[in-house]
Amino acid sequence: MIMETEIFPHRHLLGIQGLSPVEIESLLDLADSYVALNREADKKRGVLRGRTVINLFFENSTRTRTSFELAGKRLGADVINMQVATSSVNKGETLIDTAVTLNAMHLDVLVVRHPDSGAVKLLAEKVNCAVINGGDGTHEHPTQALLDALTIRRRKGRLSGLRVAICGDILHSRVARSNIHLLNIMGAEVRVVAPRTLLPTGIEALGVDVHHDMRTGLRDVDIVMMLRVQNERMSGNFVPSTREYFHFFGLDYNKLALAKPDALIMHPGPMNRGFEIDSDVADDVERSVIREQVEMGVAVRMAVLDVLARGKS
Known about the structure:
Elements: H1 4-7, H2 21-38, E1 52-57, H3 62-74, E2 78-83, H4 93-105, E3 109-114, H5 119-126, E4 130-136, H6 142-156, E5 163-167, H7 174-185, E6 189-193, E7 209-211, H8 214-217, E8 223-226, H9 242-249, H10 253-256, E9 264-266, H11 279-282, H12 290-310
Parallel strand pairs: 1-2, 1-3, 3-4, 5-6, 5-8, 6-7, 8-9
């Protein structure tokens, strides 16, 4: 039997960048087995019995925190949620003090979400437990990319060779960065589609084709991945009015017609309907996999908690 530490020989999961195709496939395979478990009447297992998981969120996210909490509890772990006021936290001495406190609690896994890029890595260097990046600034959100990959793989049977368009607020999106890394590692062709104001400088260096027009960006793609416009991270006028943004960059059926007939529609949520995506498109039962992404999120986080917590054995 292959042990979890052999399929994923890392102490932490801080990002997708640097992982190998084999490691990613192994996590997805394990997560796939947890999809089946989550659909059973008895969803709970004791593989992490006696282990302690703390969700330390310096930034609000009901969806991600709840998903990690459910994942930990279904594996039998003791799960504690800690919500920290962002106004009282910075990346310097306060984070180090937090690490000292956490070390005294002898926890096994720490899930961290933080508004500053690099803060999770700093904590990982100071704590004695495994650390999972639940999203840091505009850097990475690895479990979101993994759940997106699992959703695509279950529908399309593969990741390699697929043409994926990531559309919207690329500049502020850690989801976009993690997905770009993962899809490139797994052999997909990645496009980004956004107004110039919502693209980071040098984005081409990440191995993507850049488009400023949905008419060219969506042509013949297999996956249309829409992103939330992150107004909370913006200072200044990055986008015009809601109506104008939707006209040019919101996903509706007219723009979707440019993609392949069986192209899947994705969104990490929460959605701004009528701004990033039309409601009818978002709720299309044949092509939208947005609800499946939520389901896959629990399974992926179970897999990650499993390999990291049991890796301490």
